[in-house]
Amino acid sequence: MSLVNNNKTAIVFVHGLLGFSSISILGKIIHYFRALPPYLSNHTQSIYFPPLPGTGTVEERARVLADFLERINVDQINLIAHSMGGLDSRYAIHHFDSQQRIRSLTTIATPHRGTPLAQRIINSKKPLYSLLRRITHPALYDLTPEACARFNLEISDLPHVQYRSYAATRPANEMPPIFRPWTRALATDSGENDSQVSVSSARWGEFKGILRADHMELAGWSMGWPSISNERPFDHLRFYTNLVRELNTS
After folding, report:
1. Is residue 56 one of the residues assigned to a domain?
2. What pLDDT is attached to residue 82?
3. What CATH number is associated with residue 24?
4. Which range among 27-36, 50-59, 191-200, 209-218 shows the weakest confidence by mean pLDDT?
5. Could you tell me which residue ranges the AB hydrolase-1 domain spans (predicted)?
């Protein structure tokens, strides 16, 4: 089925690890980018949220993304990708965008250089990490620093695409308790981070800045207490609306 629309340009949001487009829980529709699809529904621009294999490899997810993009009947596409979705998008651009329709990729806390957290989970014998290995297999193995170093040797940026990136960070004392050990460990390995991806790993192409948020807040899921002084929760609806507006006018 062709996803036909009357616009010449589309914006496609790409979810991360363990992600989905939308699911129904007890009759309520839940979106990976929380509440964002209905919030953006009044935009004249065509906006899509494709479902990718939640724990697939980068290649598997990129192929599904490319198949979805192939069915969008537009001249140009802008991608906005959270976390692992940025790696999927880079792979899809490099291998599958033969018509050069993808105009830009904006990544949000993508582990372009991998995350030591992935390697820590793989190596650990702790029961929690053993569970995480099982539920994130095989995707987790594509997110280690070593795997991403190989990825970056193979997947080059293409000249017709504008690559932009955002990182995020919060100090450990602003993190939900469940994320604080990861935040501190990752800080020792890689410096400032959002509990899962470091600022240095998230930088790619034109760096647009550092957001005050943890990794889950970037998709609209805040697991910490609201705080005006800590600017929690991160206003993801405003951020993505402004980003869509910027892409529409660029």
Report:
1. yes
2. 99
3. 3.40.50.1820
4. 27-36
5. 10-127
Neighbours of 61 (CB within 10 A): 28
The predicted structure's pLDDT at residue 250: 75
- 124-151 pLDDT, tens digit per residue, is 999 999 999 999 999 999 999 999 999 9
In angstroms, the CA 28 to CA 209 distance is 34
The token pair that represents 44 in the structure block: 């004249």
Residues 89/162, Cβ–Cβ less than 8 Å: no
Give the distance, in angstroms, between the CA of residue 166 and the centroid of all CA atoms in the same chain.
Answer: 10
Residue 3 lies in a domain: no
Q: Indicate whether 197 belongs to any domain.
A: yes
Give the 3-state secondary structure of the chain: CCECCCCCEEEEEECCCCCCCEEEECCEEEECCCCHHHHCCCCCCEEECCCCCCCCCHHHHHHHHHHHHHCECCCEEEEEEECCHHHHHHHHHHHHCCCCCEEEEEEECCCCCCCHHHHHHHHCCCHHHHHHHHHHCCHHHHCCHHHHHHHHHHCCCCCCCEEEEEEEECCHHHCCHHHHHHHHHHHHHHCCECCCCEHHHHCCCEEEEEEECCCCHHHCCCCCCCECCCCECCCHHHHHHHHHHHHHHC
Does 98 have pLDDT greater than 90?
A: yes
Of 59-63, 114-118, 122-126, the least confident = 122-126
Q: Do the domain assignments include residue 2?
A: no
Split into its structural domains, the chain has a count of 1
- Name the residue with tokens 């487009």: 21
Domain containing 56 equals 9-249
